[in-house]
Amino acid sequence: MKIYKAVMLSLAITLSGCASYTTPGGSVQLSQLADSDINELMSKKPAASFPANMSVARVQAPGYQSYKVNSFGTGRYSVITTREVESDDDFIRLSKLPQLAGIAPLNRILLPVDLDSVKALREASARLKADILLIYTFDTTFHAGEQKFAPLNVISLGFLKNKQVTVTTTVSAAFFDVRTEYLYGLSEATAQEVKAASVWSTSDAVDDLRINTEKAAFQKLVPEIEKTWLGIVSQYSNNSI
Q1: Domains and CATH numbers, the chain
Q2: Across the chain, which distance is largest between two alpha carbons, in Å?
Q3: CB atoms < 10 A from the CB of 186, how many?
Q4: Cβ atoms within 10 A of the Cβ of 179, count?
Q5: Taking a C-beta distance cutoff of 8 angstroms, is the pair 57, 46 a contact?
């Protein structure tokens, strides 16, 4: 951690006096949040009743931050409680899924500070009387020419001016049973935006490209979530859809 801070400080000093942009924090491997014991995984059973209530949370790497948003919690992951790229229309559409009684986001009031496993989110979901927990995470990468920038890299905008910048976002989602941590299904979508060198004059311009890419990725994720949900209902609900 000390080495990381030193590197970041040296980069900041190097780039002082010129405009710069810090790439957003990383994603979370959703599989790392669940129980890793094979016997435990095999023993988990679905327990949700339908119509089901669903809780929703966006999770990112520990200490995640973007140009405008910071995360909540410490541990193996963090939670983003501000909707930066997800629109009301996206969630209105999800609220109309068949055999879904209601959908609600997890907020800071319900969440513990220590976030080490999906159990923390399940416990918060239980307070909402949710049956199924939907979690999702964004993995956004920046490329300038042949160079790829890792999460939380500081980029000089002067470096970008002579290059075409590509931003790629993959958003992944998983459905967990709140009671048992049973994994019902997964969804994923990817979007990409490319801009020429002429736009790289401000950090806002760079971040607008990130936001547009993440918005597009989430909009593509919504129909994938719908498909996965229809499969869950078909397999686990006694009611036809």
Answers
A1: 25-236 (3.40.50)
A2: 64
A3: 14
A4: 18
A5: no
